[in-house]
Amino acid sequence: MKRIFIPLLSLWVISCSTDLENVTAESFDETAEETTSTVEKTENPSEESSNKSPVFKTGTYSINEHSPSDSSIGFASATDDDNDEITYTLESDVDIFINESTGEIKTGTNLKLDFETTNSYPFTVSAFDGKTIVDQNFNLSINDIDETTILSEEQKEIITYAQHLTFWKGVSNTSLSANQKWGSPMKMYLNGTISQEYKTTVESVITQYNSLFTDSAFSISLVENSEEANANLFFGTKEEVETIWPDMYEEIKDGNYDGFAMTPSENSVLVSTRIWISNPLEVLLKHELGHALGFGHSDKCEDEFSFLCSQISADNDFLPVEKDIIRFIYSSKITAGLTENEMEEILADIILNEE
After folding, report:
1. Which residues 6+ apart lie within 8 Å of 196 measured at CB?
2. Segment Disordered: which positions (predicted)?
3. Tens digit of each residue's pLDDT (9 = 90 or more) over 208-256
4. Are the CB atoms for 167 and 175 separated by under 8 Å?
C-alpha cells in the first residue's frame, strides 16, 4: 500500500464554535521449488529396508487477507508406493490446521490475515504411512487486496464521516487537501480565570480524550508553566483575548463566539495550539480541543448532537462513532499529510482488522 506524502505546507487551522471469501486454492506444481526441506523419521528401523516412505507433491499456498476463519488454503498431498494410508499433521506458529485424512489446510479462529502486518507464514506438514514420518516445509502467502471492496455499508459510512471530519468538509469548514494531526504529545498550560472547578472540568475532558489514544504515543497532559507547553488554554472574556492574543481577537471580535482555537501546522503536523474558552460548559472544551486535534465541524447535528456541531449545547457530546474515529486517526497507522484516498485505504484496513 503506497503512501504519497504532501509537499511542504504550513497551514493555520482556525476553528470556532457558536453556537471473500475470495480464497486462492492450492495449485500443485511438480516443478515448483516451494519447499525447503524433507525429513524422514522411521518408526520401526527393522522395516526401513522394505517400506517406501511417503513422497510430498510440491505445492504453493496463498489466501487473501481478511479471509474469514475456517477458510481453505488448499491440500497437502503425499503419495506412497506401498499404498499405505497416510495421516497428516501440521506444525505452525499461527492458527492453521490440517485434516489428518484429506490433507486439507484451513485457517483457525485466532488467525488475523493482514498483508500490511505479515505477508507470509511458514508451516510444516508431516505425512505418516504407519511406519515412516516425512516432514515438508511450506509457506503460506497472504494476498494484498483492496480492502474497500469488502467493506459493509456501515463500515463505508464510518470512513465517509471520518473523511468529513479530518478533511474539514461541509459549509461551516474550510476544506483541507491533507489530514492534520499532532506528531508529539500535547502539553497544555492553563491561563486566565481558572477556578478549581474548571480545572477539574479540564482534567475530566483530557482523561476522556486520552482514553481514546489506545494505539498511539500521543497524549494530552497539563503542565505548570507556559515555557514547557505547546498548548495554551485561556479562560476569560472575549475582550480579554485582545490583550494576550490580538490576532485571535481580530477573528472573533465581530462574531458570536464562546470559544475559538488556532492551531498551526508544519508539513500537516500540528505543532501548537491556542484555545480560548469563555463558558465553563464541558462540551465547549471538548469541541475546541477537537478542532485543536485536527477535526472540523460535524454534520451530525439535527438528530445526533455531535460535540463538533458548529452550534452546541449541554446535550451535545462525543458520538460513539466519533470516539472510534478519534481512536483510528490517532493510531500509529495514520500519519499526517494523507490524501483522502490514502486515508480510506488505511482506515479500511484498521476497521477490518477489528472485526
Report:
1. none
2. 26-78
3. 999 999 999 999 999 999 999 999 999 999 999 999 999 999 999 999 9
4. yes
**What residue segments make up the domains of the chain, in order of their start?**
12-17+148-354, 27-143
Contact call for residues 61 and 141 (beta carbons, < 8 A): yes
Block residue for cell numbers 458548529:
310
The residue to which cell 502467502 is assigned: 141
Sheet with 104-107, edge to edge strand ranges: 72-75, 104-107, 96-98
Q: Which of 236, 231, 201, 237 is nearest to 219 (CA)?
A: 231
**Class in CATH terms, 12-17+148-354:** alpha beta
Put residue 354 in one of left, alpha, beta given phi > 0 → left and psi -120 to 50 → alpha.
alpha
- Strand, helix or coil for residue 95: coil
Cβ atoms < 10 Å from Cβ of 120: 11
Q: Please, are residues 55 and 79 in contact by the beta-carbon 8 Å criterion?
A: yes
- List pLDDT tens digits, range 96-124: 999 999 999 999 999 999 999 999 999 99
Long-range contacts of range 339-342, CB-CB < 8 Å, 24 or more positions apart?
A: 339/4, 339/6, 339/177, 339/178, 340/163, 340/167, 342/3, 342/4
The C-alpha cell 463538533 sits at 308
For 287-311, the pLDDT digits (tens) are 999 999 999 999 999 999 999 999 9
The amino acid occupying position 110 is N
Q: Where do we find the cell 508544519? A: 266
CA-CA distance, 13 to 197, in Å (whole number)? 29
Fold for domain 27-143? Immunoglobulin-like (2.60.40)
> CA nearest 351: which of 207, 161, 159?
159
The answer to whether 183 and 189 are in contact (CB under 8 A) is no
Which of 118, 141, 121 has its CA nearest to residue 25? 141
Q: How many Å apart are CA 287 and CA 172, to the nearest integer?
A: 14
